[in-house]
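hiii so my PI (J.) wants the whole complex modelled not just the main chain, which honestly fair. so below is everything: two entries, each one labled with what it is. i double checked the lines twice but i was tired so who knows lol
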Amino acid sequence: MSPPRCGAELNRGLHEAMAAFPAMYVLGEDVLDPYGGAFKITRGLSEAFPDRVITTPISEASLFGVAAGMAIRGLRPVLEIMFGDFITLGFDQIVNGISKFREMYDDQVTLPLVVRTPMGGRRGYGPTHSQSLEKFLMGVPNIRMVAASEVHDLAGLMTAAVADDDPVFLIENKVMYGRPNLRPVDGRIGELDVTESGGPSPALTFSGSGFTEAAATLVAYGGMVPIALEAATALIMEHEVFCEVVAISGLLPLDLDPVLASLSRSGVVVTLEEGTLTGGIGAEIAARVQEQGWDDLRRPVVRVAARDGIIPSAPTLEDAVLPGVAHVTRAVLGAVGARA
Amino acid sequence: MTASGPEARYRGMYLIRRFEETLLDMFSQGLLVGTTHTCIGQEADAVGVIGHMRPGLDQVVSNHRCHGHYIAFTGDLAGLAAEVMGRSGGTCSGRGGSQHLCRDGFYTNGVQGSIVPLATGIALAERERGDGAITTVFIGDGTLGQGAVYECLNMASLWRLPLLFVVENNRYAQTTPVELAVAGTVPDRARAFGVDAAHVASTDVEEIHAVAGEMVEHVRSGRPAVLSIDTYRLRAHSKGDDVRDPAEVDARWATEPLAVAGARLDAARRAALEADADRELAEALAVAHASPVAVLDEALA
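here's the output for the full assembly
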């Protein structure tokens, strides 16, 4: 049986959470059936739970705060932001509200809310509908951020996010929605061994069968996970370079333990992200790896990211600026070649 | 002491006035740090509107100029004083300070307009709970420049939220006169969204109380409403930043809320109400002073 699509699994997670949590509400733009959201992730919800699915005006600047008010009064709102690019409209509510209320109000309130939004390009949507802006959330205290990828238990990530009593930003990916949700079978996905950590934001570590050492650790999340896996396969087949891939989902707090564990076997860390390079997730990983894994590092951490610029609309231009398999293999070969 | 009625409203306004005058004195003596925004001159709005709120059920959301609303809703003088003084016994244990308060269904935040979406979400949750609670959000004329206000008027109208917007137009957004910042009228803006609005230009707490009562009943019937109040801020925006013509401000002292309401009271009765409020304030301040300074309970790594 072929695996379900990622979008269908996220949808299943929403249906399961709606059934499990009577206080859960789904709100967002165009979320009602028969449309079911721009990417169909909320499909069927308004038919199954007509009183708890609210379609909204195009008012992102307020919707984050509306969700906060609902959460403060005991509901569990799940807010869909149609494109991740639009989180910028809500930053006052995110930074001056959602991030602050629980601590500022001396723990008299909780904010069990979820913001779901798809990031990522490679669909030709152009500069304002293709970005990966999760790095702007990295500096926001008191929120959790989880990056879904096609190898994670997506329905499980969704229900865990809804169950959380703190604000969770669930970062999805547009390309992922249509791809199969690949889950480990007998500890393997394809030709690679997989170990998976637990908790609400697990990490999967991929390695070559039977290998206890690796040439490099590739740290990836979200839409960069399949690219990391493809690059790792190409490095084995074409260069006989064996890498581990750590597919993290915990961005806030940053799930560093599986990265450090892999680093102890490889000595080299290459970070992968689809957002622009400067001030990115890779920069935070690199800083923490040098703080906590210095003795295992054989060379500086290498970051692979998008060019610091716009994401052009034309497919040829978009391919040129977003990090692809070739960028990753080149970066890894450069890092491995520089080993002492 | 009557629990409600004109005497209680006078006493409530007097308590707010004396509390804030005490804060300004403490600032000038160097006993407080940070900032504060007093509602001196606007007390009739807080007391007149909040007199219709049901404690333990209704929700109130306020802004940077929130002390009057807080005192009128919670009566918690000691907690507010301790909060402003940075003491552990404060409303938020010193974490929030003057403009970031939370207690028993009362919430404030310090960014203009930021609180309106919060109030909209609270009102939505209360509607879903179905226990008849209403939410009141206080904003000022300055906040009318924020787009979130209109997003929320729209949603409140579409979703029939039990939400009362109270616009306290005190004529100045910090130093900018309302004529330079607000086009048209507040009721017209509300009605553009299909939201019913009432307007009162008064510092008479009895007049405001009466109009507010009508609007609160309207909101309890399941429709949002806007109450627009033309008032006047007699003191600076925060502590000393006042560039208004002193003659303009002086003229307004003749119609300040305590003068208007106090003139209707017997002199001896008024003095007794004030003495009673002074005693309550002194006791609350003593409690606040006795509270230890706030400390971070988890060490910074």
